[in-house]
Design brief:
Blueprint lengths: L3 E8 L5 H13 L5 E7 L8 E6 L4 E5 L4 H11 L12
Parallel strand pairs: 1-2
Antiparallel strand pairs: 1-3, 3-4
Helix pairs in contact: 1-2
Length: about 90
Amino acid sequence: METLRVKLNVPADGGVPAARKTFEEIADVHSDQAIFQVNRSRYVDEETWGFRIEHGAKRDAGFVRTTSPAAVERTMAEVAFGSFERRLDGG
C-alpha cells in the first residue's frame, strides 16, 4: 500500500488559523487513509502557506492553498487517484 501524506506548511509563528482548523477537520475525517503533518517554517509566509499532498514512492504530488476541507480532499483524491475514498460533500 502506498502512503498518502498531507502536509500543512505554515509560517514559523503558526499563522493562518483557518488553515489549521481545516487541517484538523480533514485529518479527523481521513486519519485512516493518510499521514498528516504540520510544518512550520521561516521560509513560509502569509502568501506561500498551503497543503502539500504526496502519494507513493514516486511522490505524485499536489498543492492547494485553501481553507476548504472539501478542496483539500479533492486534491487528495486527484493525487491518490483510484485508491482514495472521498467522504466530504461540496466543493
